[in-house]
């Protein structure tokens, strides 16, 4: 792997990300299709907003399945949260959302990923675009920002543009009102399939006009994170490039919490 | 850490059929679709501006235009592919130029190999590989998938194809290969992922055996 002799000594070799036993401390019903598992993970080494964990399930006959899930919680919280969208034909997500209850255990390892991450030392506007359960790693960023110092918060005004099918599909719906009480946070929803009576917000897929209207100008060099289904991410990332944003500032993630 | 796996009562899982199960590495599942994973926007380089370079340690370089590249001997290969995000896809069909062919052509023009390579791509992506992982019929620069031109989302116009390693090593939008005397970790390799990435040894992340 490496030819550098120093790294051959155990002390210098990077530590393996070990499997850990996690215990379900709480289950939060977010939408008809998504639940949050709040986990106690003894020895958890900490993480950055945007990182994910691998979850491993073992059946009684020894068969194992693994999936990756984005971390939803901020690093300063004592528990670790993952939010899982139930995919009806999935192998793992129906078990996690239907079968697990408080006190049950599962195995996970992490944190994983060093690119799609944000922390409060990154000065500059933060622009987050989520589609569906792609909100999860972006919510970790907003929660991390909310837990940061007033100086850090002021240095990183944040805008979230969140595309959902309908109001009942909006994950973390109640929490957004609290987050948006900070004048440095704007939360903008678009509901693409159905809208509640009296809805005055966006009701179409994210397009160039919408991004132009809500995104910080390219001249402010925002940090942009896009997470959601592939067609949304492809389209939004492409539109940012066409609008003159620096491609290297547009970080995308297409898998996150939605593995089948 | 968990020494003994925790049994998830009532979890049955979904094994692949026995005939295919032996082809799915540990921790992977069989995917019938073709998921897309990229760290940023998809580059769209016009073919008129596309070229492919092989560059030696000393800077000596051979460059092929799109037409020249397509005129090189190429072959159709059917391989299983394995993404570190857990999906594997069996019997994928690609058309491309073997890296062995590129190296042989480059040698005629004075470009020598070295013990390691860094593949580089439009958009700034890089990935590192030992020479032995891309020679001996193990790697291609593929420009066609399933009989059709490679779609940009999947790395078109051309991507590296190194199917025996996790698929992040098969760099999308590849534009060239730099030979290096030493191992120089690439984009994911400095962002928490394993240096080599053998799916059968489950070398997913930094520190995995």
Protein topology:
The complex is a heterodimer of chains A (260) and B (209).
Chain A: E1 20-31, E2 34-40, E3 52-58, E4 64-70, E5 80-85, H1 93-98, E6 105-112, E7 126-131, H2 135-146, H3 150-155, E8 158-164, H4 173-179, E9 185-191, H5 208-214, E10 223-227, H6 230-242, E11 250-253
Parallel strand pairs in A: 7-8, 7-10, 8-9, 10-11
Antiparallel strand pairs in A: 1-2, 1-6, 2-5, 3-4, 3-6
Chain B: H1 18-21, E1 29-30, E2 51-55, E3 61-65, H2 66-70, E4 75-82, E5 87-98, H3 99-108, E6 116-121, E7 126-130, E8 140-145, E9 148-149, E10 159-161, E11 174-180
Q: From the alpha-carbon coordinates, what is the Rg of chain A to the nearest angstrom?
A: 19 Å
Uncertain runs of chain B with pLDDT below 50, 5 residues or more? Answer: none
Question: Helical segment tally of chain B?
Answer: 3
| Total domains of chain A | 2
């Amino acid at each position: 792997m490496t030819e550098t002799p120093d790294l051959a000594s155990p002390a210098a070799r990077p530590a393996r990300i070990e499997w850990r036993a996690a215990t379900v401390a709480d289950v939060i019903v977010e939408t008809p299709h998504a639940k949050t598992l709040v986990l106690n993970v003894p020895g958890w080494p900490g993480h950055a907003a945007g990182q994910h964990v691998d979850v491993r399930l073992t059946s009684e006959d020894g068969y194992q399945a693994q999936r990756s899930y984005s971390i939803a919680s901020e690093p300063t919280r004592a528990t670790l949260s993952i939010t899982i969208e139930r995919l009806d034909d999935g192998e793992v997500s129906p078990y996690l959302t239907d079968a697990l209850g408080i006190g049950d255990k599962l195995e996970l390892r992490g944190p994983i990923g060093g690119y799609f991450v944000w922390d409060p030392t990154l000065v500059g506007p933060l622009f987050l675009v989520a589609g569906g359960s792609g909100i999860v790693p972006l919510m970790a960023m907003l929660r991390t920002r909310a837990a940061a110092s007033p100086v850090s918060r002021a240095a990183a005004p944040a805008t979230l543009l969140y595309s959902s099918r309908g109001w009942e599909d909006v994950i973390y719906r109640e929490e957004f009102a609290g987050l948006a009480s900070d004048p440095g946070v704007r939360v903008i929803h678009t509901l693409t399939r159905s809208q509640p009576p009296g809805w005055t917000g966006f009701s179409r897929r994210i397009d160039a006009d919408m991004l132009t209207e809500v995104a910080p100008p390219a001249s402010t060099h925002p940090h942009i994170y896009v997470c959601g289904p592939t067609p949304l991410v492809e389209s939004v990332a492409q539109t940012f490039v066409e609008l003159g944003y620096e491609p290297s500032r547009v970080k995308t993630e297409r898998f996150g919490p939605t593995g089948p | 850490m968990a020494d003994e796996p925790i049994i998830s009562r009532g979890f049955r899982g979904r094994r692949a059929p026995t005939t295919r199960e032996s082809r799915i590495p540990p921790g992977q599942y069989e995917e019938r679709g073709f998921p897309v994973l990229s760290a940023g926007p998809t580059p769209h380089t016009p073919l008129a501006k596309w070229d492919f370079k092989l560059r030696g340690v000393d800077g000596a370089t051979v460059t092929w235009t799109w037409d020249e590249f397509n005129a090189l001997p190429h072959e159709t290969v059917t391989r299983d592919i394995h993404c570190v995000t857990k999906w594997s896809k069996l019997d994928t069909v690609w058309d491309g130029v073997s890296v062995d062919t590129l190296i042989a052509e480059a040698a005629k023009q004075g470009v020598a190999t070295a013990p390691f390579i860094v593949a580089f791509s439009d958009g700034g992506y890089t990935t590192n590989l030992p020479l032995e992982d891309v020679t001996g019929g193990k790697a291609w620069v593929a420009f066609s998938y399933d009989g059709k031109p490679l779609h940009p989302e999947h790395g078109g116009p051309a991507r590296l194809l190194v199917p025996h390693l996790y698929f992040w090593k098969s760099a999308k939008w590849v534009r060239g290969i730099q030979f290096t005397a030493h191992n120089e970790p690439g984009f994911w390799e400095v962002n928490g992922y394993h240096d080599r990435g053998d799916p059968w040894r489950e070398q997913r992340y930094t520190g995995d055996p």
